[in-house]
Amino acid sequence: MKTSELYLLGRHLTELARRGMADAADPDTPEVDAVIISVLVEARGMSISDVTRRTGFAQSHVSTSVARMREKGYLLAEVDPADRRRTLIRPIDAVYAAVAHRQQRDVEQVLAATLAEAGVDPEVVPETAARLAAAADELYTLLTARALGQHGDGVLPLHSLTERWEKS
Fold it and tell me: Which CATH number does 3-167 carry?
């Protein structure tokens, strides 16, 4: 694979993620808001800088999105008890349930639908979708750990919220 093909693959993956994250209940939600909410539900509060590092979005985009969602009442801002100079952002309780529901949409399902649309033999679609999802999960974990300056398996995948809700 050439780097130009990797770039194009990234664009295709972005489109698949858009499809998977689309929410009929609120079709006008900007994708940046959906991604930021998905990240925020993983912590008991994050600063704008923390969200910027985790998502890779420009700080101005994160700040604008957070301001928009605070205005709508989706997010709360609190002073960081460990460092009173920092403000931590967290979703309201109702957002957690909505995100857990949205996160139940498994990437394997999105990939399987895409493979079927592309005319892949239906006999191999489930196995191929599972293999591609596993590779994507491994790549996500490695790249996110690198972006956060972590090493090893310390990065929680975003689907962990759904798993926590199912266990409780």
Answer: 1.10.10.10
